Amino acid sequence: MFRRRARGAREERRPLTRDTCMAAACGVSDAVRCGYRDRRGRHCATFWCSQHGSTALGRAYCRRHATTIDALSGADVSEGMPDLENRAPSLVGWVSRELDQAVRLALLRHSTPGSRLVVDPVRLTVRSGMDRRWHRRWKLVDHTGILRGVAVEVDEGDDSRVVTRVDSQVIGRSLPPWIEQRRRGHALTPEADADNRRWFSDTLMRSIELVVDREEVAPRYRR
Ligand SMILES: [Zn+2]
Ligand SMILES: [Zn+2]
Asked: Of 113, 180, 174, 161, nearest to 140 (Cα)?
């Protein structure tokens, strides 16, 4: 058993680099292996052609891991790269990139003299007894502390729910429709997938704006 595991580990150090693209009905034979390697030293075993794969920082990845790499550029990854199969950092990265400009504008509408916007990179929070949580935060701050804040979060233990917060309050726990469809075994066309994603980020943003702009009932956020 130990010998088998050791051989597996050696194979993982010398991964195949070319094979058939794994996208349905693609068939391109010189697809490139995703370059992702997680904190346990495991390589992503998927192969993608240039049309169905993606790149991040000049290297080829599957789409999920390209989003993970993009999301984590500038982040503290001293804990190591997220587990291969975990969707949390990629989902936080994608959602926060989609919402970024609109969240900045929403918060800046409430800026006061002396306040400024601080945008954190995607970060991991590890607390004992709790799920590892990936999140990104936008904060309007002044010398007294945080005036207003928006955050998107995904827990590794429930990596299909996007939690949105305004100030310290959770305002939504949303299951992205494309994840729900995939769970039900429905394949989405690229157009339907793009529509779903646009609808989802627009809906999240509207709910965030509603709460951010409802200034008189939102509690001031202090830490
Ligand atoms: Zn392909
Ligand atoms: Zn991958």
From this structure: 113
Instruction: Give the Cα-Cα-Cα angle 90, 150, 156 (nearest 5 degrees).
Output: 35
pLDDT digit string (tens) for 182-219? Answer: 888 887 888 888 999 999 999 999 999 999 998 554 45
pTM of the complete model: 0.80
Cα distance between residue 50 and residue 175, in whole Å: 29
CA 71 to centroid of ligand 1, rounded, Å: 24
Ligand lying closest to the C-alpha of residue 30: 1
Query: In whole angstroms, what is the distance from residue 214 CA to residue 94 CA?
Result: 26
pLDDT tens digits for 131-150? 889 999 999 999 999 999 99
What spacing in Å lies between the alpha carbon of 182 and ligand 1's midpoint?
19
Q: Which helix (H) or strand (E) holds 145?
A: strand 145-155
For residue 188, the CA-to-ligand 2 centroid distance in Å is: 20
